[in-house]
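Anyone else keep sequences and structure tokens together like this?

Example one:
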Amino acid sequence: MPASGEIRLELQEGIDRKTLTTLRKRFSQLNQTRLRRVTQALGSRQYLVLQLIPLLFDVNHPLLPGYIAGHTPRGLATYLPDNETLLAAQSLTRSFSWRKHPAGFNPQIHALYLMGSGGTIAQSDKSDLDIWVCHDPALNEAERLELASKCQLITDWADTLNCEAHFHLIDPARFSRGERDNDLTTEDCGSSQHYLLLDEFYRTAILLAGRYPLWWMVPVYEEHNYPEYTKALLGKRFLRARDALDLGHLAEIPAGEYVGAGLWQLFKGIDSPYKSVLKLLLTEVYANQHPDVECLSLSFKREVYAGEPDADELDPYIMLYRKVEAYLKARGDLDRLDLVRRCLYLKADVRLSRRGGMLDWKRQLMEKLVREWQWDTRQLQQLDNRRQWRVEEVSRERRQLVSELTHSYRLLSHFGRSHNVINAINNRDMSLLGRRLHAAFERKAGKVEVINPGIAPDLAEPLLTLAAEQRDGQASWALLRGSLNLTEIDAHKPLKRTRHVMELLTWGYRNGVIDAASRFALHPGDSALSEFELNNLLTSLRQSFPLPMPVLTEAALSRASQPCQVLLLVNVGLDPLPASSQKNLHLISSHTDALGYSGLRDNLILSIDQITLNSWNEILVSRYDGEQACIQALCDFLNQGQAHQRLPELQVACYCRNRSSAIAERVESLFRDAAERLLAEPAQQFLLQVQTGFRLLERRNGAIEVTALDDQEALQRHLGRSKPRHTALHLDNYALQGQDLALVLRQDQPGRTQVFFRLLGNQQAELYVLDERGSLWRQRTAYQDEQTLLLPLLRFLYSVRLRRQINQPLDAQRNQDELQIGEILPAGANHPTRVVPRKVPELKLEADFYAVQAIAEPSDQHSSWVVSIFCEHREFSALEHGDQLFSAVARHILERRREHSRYPCYITDLDLSAADPAGKMQTVHYLRYRQQLEQSLNQAMDSLRQ
């Protein structure tokens, strides 16, 4: 039989050993051609690594790389180093000399195979050495661990020579049974794809040294009978078992493997789409032809059996392309076919529009393909200039790549479910991949779109123009290539246009269009954006979100996305004090709060741009405008922390013309202080002042809500409302600054009734009461002396307390706190305004104080109250006196006073049991109703005096 003719091996007709030898030579010649192509593409240092790797596994020499110990597994089957390899080893250590292993020695390394793109049209100077170390299945765990350590040491040594080498330990016996070693779990994104990995191995692997694959010697038409056929070959000694390595066969590929392989390629395609598109389409072809698919490795073997193999046509990537081409042409998918051709051309990296610098065989092979495709010079130049592609070309290419990846995801999902092969593992991986695709490509409000997923190496522009625009009454910002003046802008198409400048700058930075070397022509329009501010904004982006982004982990994708890093940029392009800037003045004021600056109480926080990096590596930009910008941004920030039970890392920056540092410090301290109070357990209320109004933040129904209070009067009304329970109130450092109310509110203690007073002069005093739930009552009143000011109120509070105790068990009364009194003293030379505790006076039955009790009951219509008043023991009722009730009581009291004294009349007891039979009403309810009654009574008294 001629060496170039077709080989057929029929067990029934007998097998000629010479034919088997011819077959082995064909595979070996093709293997040598590929190995030669690998070495031709390597630099001298990388070549040294590849040359020495077989020797390093054959021996254990203390002065050679990878040495662990003399007993570390060694010996490479059938290996005999050539003189060039021995000289290379002696260049590392002159003491080395190789000796043949003694008779009876059993090599523990069966074979070394180079996997991947090596020796193919896709090999580049960046290709790594991905090597399978097939070892003796008899190795125990300790020996295997030692061998793994040896591999790592060789990897480290290769790295010193600028060569990336990775080793995977393979137990052939386990692998042939479909049992996977831990080394390879990262190859399949968590889902099994044993047969497709074996398919790739058989068509791409280059035997460096050791045993050849037994699979070579099994004809395609005997693949389904692989176990019996190989048993006969070895049993009848057509082949020697010590020369061949059995890794299994490819008679049938389970449908579930297409899902696993597709998931992995989609995963890799997010960052490296060109190579993945090719492999994804191959998976699609396999899935479409299932179950009658002939995988590429079988086609490869069929061609070797048919005659002398053509290394070009059997190039793994060329074979892949041919299969995909036939599939797409049959379907009429010419757009997808054009994308596949571009992917192959860019993967080959031959640049046919230029001369030189490329291996002849590679150039000739690609030239042949390009002639078939009928590409013209312009197309070649466009692809060859990929390193110079700018935003427009990259965006256009991205759209097609993303479309292809998402199409593949939908097809995989449909195939898996229609063939009922989506198991629990697949389903989880499918969900994770869906999230990864969503994070990488899904558009949503505020999200910065990443336009360059491994398409062009560099999009940076050295010169850019940033211009404010007015288009159809809408303000916007445009980023343009080059340094343009105002008259040139309209003639150029922007790279990107957005409503707000930070959205534009973040897009440019995230996509590498703007880098540290970029210079700007700035046309700010009506904004106050300066070159100083622009440069600092970009510096803040680089410091807060350094590129490249951290690796997106499976753990992060398994949870809902949550914010990790937040950058707040305050007053971008705005001057909070434009009048001062125009006059070149700087206001000096004791009111330094950015939310209430100077005597005019100006709010200097006019806008906040929030840049957020979340756990899925998405960057989102949101903007808050106007006088409520700070409050809205604060609530959103706190609600994010509340929803995810953790706050993102916060940074705040401001570069506007006036008071930028003070503004940034104020915003940062406000956000941190509010978060500490509102997200704590139990949560507190948080009060801050904005200009002359107030904002009360509190946690309700799992969210932070804000109540706007226009002035201090509205604040006091709100603080005086009843509460279902006590909630601590925390005041922002600038809220109610210098006011007595701030001092009072900071004294609040749950379960206590606290009385505070301040003597104002002119026989006027200010009274405050914080009740047991923190509700506030306040009154300005005339007084004669401190005793007459406090005793009526204290009498009343004790009577309220006594009524409440009547409805409680005795045990509950023991733990009730006494009343507390504090006097507010004005600031002095050595101290600020402060609250000084006062001893609660003893309540005596002084002759000048009448016991005045009021009883209020709902009317028959329940729309009003019917009041009865008892002065000592005399009753005055509305039934008897009608609308003259308060005049009658006032006349009686005045008649009882000596010299008709003008001090006010006080209610000393109030019974509301008809409305509150269980005694649950707060003290503040009693105080408010008492105040209404006293006001009516004292008005009647004043009328009688006139």
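And example two:
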Amino acid sequence: MKTRFNTYDILCSITELQRLVGMRVNQVYDIDHRTYLVRLQRSEEKCVLLLESGNRFHTTAFEWPKNVAPSGFSMKMRKHLKNKRLESLKQVGVDRIIDLQFGSGEAAYHIILELYDRGNIVLTDYEMTILNVLRPHTEGDKIRFAVREKYPFGRAHTRNMPPVEEIYEIINKAKPGESLKKILNPHLEFGSAVIDHVLLKSGFPLGCKINKDFNVSEDMPKLISALENANQIFNNAKQNLSKGYIIQRREAKPLQNEKEECIFANIEFHPMLFEQHKDQPYKEFETFDLAVDEYFSTMEGQKLDLKALQQERDALKKLENVRKDHDQRLISLEKTQEVDKQKAELITRNQRLVDNAILAMQSALANQMSWPDIQVLLKEAQSRGDPVAGAIKQLKLETNNISLFLSNPYEDSDEEEPELKPMMIDIDLAHSAFANAQRYYNQKRSASKKQQKTIESQGKALKSAEKKTKQTLKEVKAIHSINKLRKVYWFEKFYWFISSENYLVIGGRDQQQNELIVKRYLRSGDLYVHADLTGASSVVIKNPTGDVVPPKTLAEAGTMAVAYSVAWEAKVVAGAWWVNSDQVSKSAPTGEYLTTGSFMIRGKKNYLPPCQLVMGLGFMFRLEDGSVERHKDERKIRILDEDSEIGEAPVDSDKEIELEGESDDNDEDAEDKITLSQIDENEDGEVKEAEVKSNPQIESSDSETNDKPQFPDTQIKFDLSGPRIKVQVDTTQSLKKIESQEEEENVVYLGDDKPIIVKPNDKSKKNTNQEKDSIQKQDARNEKETKQKDPNLPKRGQKARLKKIKEKYKDQDEEDRRLLMEALKSAGTAKEDKRKNKNKDPSGPKQNKKKGSGQIKPNPIQQNIRVDDNAEEEDVGPAPEIDMLNQLTGKPIAEDELLFAVPVVAPYNTLLNYKYKVKLTPGTGKRGKAAKTALAVFLRDKATTSREKDLLKAVKDETIARNIPGKVKISAPQIQKIKK
């Protein structure tokens, strides 16, 4: 397969691409370290010029995948070439070197593209001083390709062919039998394709050889005429545009149906249809540039087609090998039977001779003769003409055998019987001639039975092989169609997952991607999540709808930020934080330079609780449009139901904890308890709402409503008659207090991930010290009274548990408890303070509450979301990103039509409802092995359908492993069996 330009291709391309002269450079991109795209523009005319070091240059209409962050060489070209006009495009001498000049005079810059050997791209200034070079190296002793060196133009060739006298000398020095093309090619600049063409045109056969097809004395004038014809072809290419031709090869399918056509694989591209290619299939294009673009653009698709074709051929070859193996086995068994039968017949007909040979050898062994002495004795007997000794050809005394050369003694009289050929036969010295013949007859009988069994099992074996081959062909076809349909999403170049509530979360793999994510993909309404750890990824939660991002999604994004940091290798539990998009800036107020991937955060950081280092690897499936509706609300926000009755949230009895002050008593009067979902009434019967501010990392409950997310199935109960507080929550984790960094707010943690931020009003601050003393005195009295009132004793094990809780929560003093009660009590000052501080609150407008809902709903920390003034008037519908995310599901059902599978690495809690998932924790296993093991787990699952198996097999191992964070331990049911 042709992959690079020759001199004739370069000449035709330069002639055609003169139309680009005068266009300005709009931007420069890099596809990989060798291939670069230069986007050119002139008024409304646009085009993209592709430069690949060592191989090709042409314009392209194909959408090539660009690198996420530009390379250093791209940045250097952008710096010097952007907005410069392409002034000239020419070939250096007659070499495979192209000079592109951008700008004029002292502002001129040159790109030198070398298309020979390993190739190179060099950026120079107007004096041809090298500013940057793709591949620095040294040619010979003097020529150096490095920055600040002069580019050596003088080494380029200046002629297409040497003089005629020199050609005569080259031919005369050639050895007889050498290929004429091979001799001429190093001395000519035409290229092998053009040389073949002109030689065929002149009447020489393809692959012409010296002194065989080419006579030096007679055919030299014809050769010179052919080379002049090649020179004329080059001169025409400089003046006229050339057509393009892609030469193809017909690849027949192994099982060709009437509907299926043969595959035509592209093998070469040329500016003209050469004589040697006229009998091959080809595609013609208006210009050579279009042909080259088509050739390289379809190369990947062609590779997929040819790979699938080769897999089909291999499967059918295996089936054919099974058939051949069975046939060969039957033939071998037949031959074995025939040989054993003949050996037995010969032994029977030479019975006396065989018995005498056995007796002679047994006598020698009985006399305790050594084996060398027996050999000497045998040679002496053979020299005397002893017929018994003459029949013994070899001694195999180590196996107690001898080899006799036996022939048919009745050959002349047995004309009707089949001919018995003389042969060497091994005779066992432990048995008589008759017993040896019997042994060979038994072997013949055993081979006959084996042949019969082979014939009987042949049908079953072939059917099994055919079934397996059909299954393989079906899988190959399915995987090939999946790879054709596979759409690579834009976010797959980053770390990514879709949260439990259908938010797209992306994170950078390195500093360049962190920079790109913030600059290109962080939009108004999105949230930025990060962790104060080395190597932590910059994570962005995409929020196209403009709604408040739920706490569960924030917690999952925080887990992702921590997992892709040094915390994973160190196995350290840490926390992350989040800010609004308008708090992230690249400019520092002091004018300090921020490195790539670093950003300035303005205002308050909202810290998330420490997260566990538990990630998961799962698979999502792309649904056909008709199946999307079945999974409409699969990842929706789960919140409390407004219509449910007060206090109906279920609480597990075994997850109830009590928080006490100085006392060990854990009893409370049930009559004095109130729940968070209740509302207080003052003396006038007015309904008051407690001012409670919640952090967004509070998880959503399993019930649903149309309002904002609230506390997760949590009842917080307080005893208003005494100083002790009894809190009933859905977790047994510790209760902590932290102080806000920038605002005077008190944060009370109900468990590691259930914080309540309480903002006290002025009145509560003044009365705190006065009430503290009375609370302590009242505590001692109520302790004794409570013990007398409630005869129930703590349950078994509860006392020790409460002792541990008391030790954990000893830092929670009376002031904190008082503030918590103050925030939840029915007070008229709550609404007044709320109105006063509305404009002072830096975190933006509060969440809207529905009136008369019958519940108190805590407000999360506010996220600054810009809403257009005309948002209510015009509904633009769901964002395209949401539609795209809805097409992916982790819970496929039998009725779904699935197009392809996408591997996803996410916090394990996100993947709980997925059909295919494994748990990843920090460990010692390599990512590639973990990916293969996970895929084996999924394929062995009995619930896996055949279509899902095909989709999973179509995913490459490197695609599965690329997002796994470092060394891992993989956990799944019965995984040890699969590893074994």
